[in-house]
Design brief:
With about 300 residues, this protein is α/β, with parallel strands linked by helices. The chain has eleven helices and 13 strands. The chain starts with a strand and ends with a helix.
């Protein structure tokens, strides 16, 4: 199968590309800097600067992981626009590619798995959240909603679209743990605010397996929560991480300090959702790392 991947040189994309290559698939990767990312990707990857550069090489499937990190910078109005554009523009190009392929060759991708995020639901307090839960209207929700709406345009060209609302991705070498590990290793970690906010999370290996699962199952479309079946609160996460490292977790960060430092973006740290992967479980997907203890033991052991 010929698979087109946006965000293929990123933290999740690199692992996905390796798994696809091992399974014998041909990789088409979009990157603005092909020469810089070539060493991060499997040998033989076809790397081009734009989605639309692949009009002459029709993919059988698409995985859309592109998007500027949402927590990299304070949310000024300009940064909010960049966050939206970095997702919507690439996703729109993928839909345009489907349109052009249908018009020129009559051959469209069979499926697109497009990333979204747990932010789709906004702040949900302590209630259990499935794919059917109504969202709370705030910036993170509006960003994800727009992202998903654009991806859904591929359905007009006969493409099956699966939307994966991803939680915090855990593994060595990047993701959420990259910023958390240094203070926790020094014994300076602790909860954010009162620590009662939920943190949906997923081991990177399970996330990649879920993407492959959605690519292969012709009967699966629509939204799927990409998180482990046992989410934890921020306080539980902090205790579990500290225990795994053999360090205390006695340095909580007051909510007011986060609000002053990060402004509106602090909501990512101080609110959350008890997000459950109901539809993945119903479809028969089995997590290798269903609990945080098992995931951290694998990652840090």
């Amino acid at each position: 199968m010929r698979v087109l991947i946006t965000g293929g040189s990123g933290f999740v994309g690199q692992r996905l590309c390796r798994r696809l290559k091992e399974a014998g698939h041909q990789l088409l990767v979009v990157s603005r800097s092909p020469d810089e990312v070539r060493d991060r990707l499997p040998e033989g990857s076809d790397i081009r600067r734009s989605v639309l550069d692949f009009v002459d090489t029709p993919p059988d499937a698409i995985v859309n992981l592109a998007g500027e990190p949402i927590a990299a910078k304070r949310w000024s109005e300009a940064q909010k626009e960049r966050l939206i554009d970095s997702r919507v523009n690439v996703t729109g190009d993928l839909v345009m590619l489907c349109e052009q392929l249908k018009a020129s060759q009559g051959r469209m991708p069979k499926v697109m798995v497009s990333a979204s995020a747990m932010g789709y639901y906004g702040d949900q307090g302590d209630r259990e959240v499935t794919e059917e839960t109504p969202p709370h209207d705030e910036f993170a929700h509006r960003l994800c909603k727009r992202w998903e709406e654009v991806a859904g345009g591929a359905k007009d060209y006969g493409v099956r679209v699966a939307l994966l609302r991803i939680g915090l991705v855990l593994d060595v070498g990047g993701g959420s743990l990259a910023k958390m590990l240094p203070p926790f290793k020094l014994g300076l970690g602790g909860r954010f605010g009162d620590g009662t906010q939920f943190m949906p999370w997923i081991h990177r290996e399970d996330l990649v397996r879920a993407i492959l699962f959605l690519l292969e199952r012709d009967d699966l479309e629509g939204p799927f929560n990409g998180s482990a079946p046992h989410p934890v609160t921020n306080a539980e996460f902090s205790r579990t991480l500290a225990k795994q490292l053999g360090r205390p977790a006695l340095m909580p960060v007051p909510a007011i300090a986060l609000e002053v430092a990060f402004g509106e973006m602090s909501r990512l740290l101080l609110t959350g959702a008890d997000m459950r992967p109901a539809r993945l479980l119903e479809a028969g997907f089995e997590f290798r790392f269903p609990t945080l203890e098992k995931a951290l033991a694998d990652i840090l052991g």
